Amino acid sequence: MMDPEESLWHASREGRVVRVKEILKVHPAVDVNWKGDGESTALHQATFFGHSTIIEMLLAHPAIDVNLRDGHQETALGKACEAKQVLCARLLLKDSRVNVSLPNGDQVTPLSLALSSNLISVVQWWIALGLKVGPKPSPPPDSNWKTPNFAQLLLVIFRSDPERVRNEIRQELGLTAGTGVRTSFLSCLRSRTFLFPS
Q1: Are residues 132 and 161 in the same domain?
Q2: Which of 25, 69, 76, 78 has its CA 20 to 30 A from that of 89?
Q3: 131, 101 in Cβ contact below 8 A?
Q4: What is the CATH classification number for the domain harbouring 19?
Q5: Does some domain include residue 141?
Q6: Tens digits of per-residue pLDDT, 11-25?
């Protein structure tokens, strides 16, 4: 028979809302930060598999540590961005305890993961909440993030710094000279009102 911590971990992974609620009620002192496979917590599991209701329940527990890292040094927010779980990412971004700048083991931040996954709505939400953006995120290893969406995301992130946008555009046009990506990039820049209608 599994102990409450292991049961909570598995129920969070499997999306068993009623079971999670039961465990948290019957065992209020349960270690919600207990780590299972891959050194991940129940919050990591619920986030990666998109169980938003369980995330809300775990975030409501007074002992939850929202910034714990798993075996890959990934936070729950990083997992949400990596797995393209938009709703889960938004729930975590709304929680003031979440450190949005913590990188994973490859030194890739959650914002970089959101960018590489083309999660435009997450990045827009990030900016709307006034969260820290910091320097231009670096792309995750082995990723091909120089896509048309990069132009849109660039305008979102650096909208308050026109000179920085110009410099980034110059760099991007140089990197993509003579390719179809360059044409797509310019097309996205011309349609920037898609993100910010006047």
Answers
A1: no
A2: 25
A3: no
A4: 1.25.40.20
A5: no
A6: 999 999 999 999 999
**Number of structural domains in the chain:** 2
Residues 6+ apart with CB under 8 A from 73: 103, 104, 105
Secondary structure in 3-state letters for 89-110: HHHHHHCCCCCCCCCCCCCCCH
Give the count of beta carbons closer than 10 Å to the beta carbon of residue 90: 16
Give pairs for 90-95: CB < 8 Å, separation 24+: 90/122, 90/125, 91/52, 91/55, 91/56, 91/59, 92/47, 92/55, 92/59, 92/66, 93/122, 93/125, 93/126, 93/129, 93/131, 94/129, 95/59, 95/66
* DSSP per position, 7-71: HHHHHHHHT-HHHHHHHHHH-TT--TT---GGG--HHHHHHHTT-HHHHHHHHTSTT--TT---T
Same structural domain, 32 and 124: yes
Q: Left if phi > 0, otherwise alpha if psi is -120 to 50, otherwise beta: which for 185?
A: alpha
